């Protein structure tokens, strides 16, 4: 009867950091488009490092957290490149009026 519903295995800090930086890379899009690409790269690297750590140590948990950070990092990198490209194209089409 003393079974706990909470999994007591620790989560690697790199997985939590990957998720946090991945969320920041997406949240930075309307504020600082320039920051989304570097934040996305950091989230991607942290996600890969945490996935490797989780594969090597079965006593850890957090594979979904690291996967989410990895995917958010990729999304931040793509959107970080797509938004400036779209703005440049719009400027080229409608901007100068020459």
Write a structural description.
By secondary structure, the protein is mainly α. The longest helix has about 30 residues, at about 65-95. The protein has three helices and no strands. Helix 1 (about 15-25) runs parallel beside helix 3 (about 65-95). Helices cover about 70% and strands about 0% of the residues.
Keywords:
98 residues, mainly alpha
Q: Tell me the Rg in angstroms.
A: 18 Å
Count the DSSP helices. 3
Q: Could you estimate the helical fraction of the residues in percent?
A: over 70%
**DSSP E strands, number:** 0
Reported for the largest beta sheet, the result is:
none
Distance between the ends? 78 Å
Tell me, rounded to a whole number, the average pLDDT.
88
Content-based structural category:
mainly alpha
Instruction: Please state the overall shape, judged from the principal axes of the Cα atoms.
Output: elongated
- String of helices and strands: HHH
The stretches of 5 or more residues where confidence is low (pLDDT under 50) are: none
Strand content: under 5%
Give the arrangement of secondary structure elements:
Blueprint: H1 13-27, H2 33-56, H3 63-94
Helix pairs in contact: 1-2, 1-3, 2-3
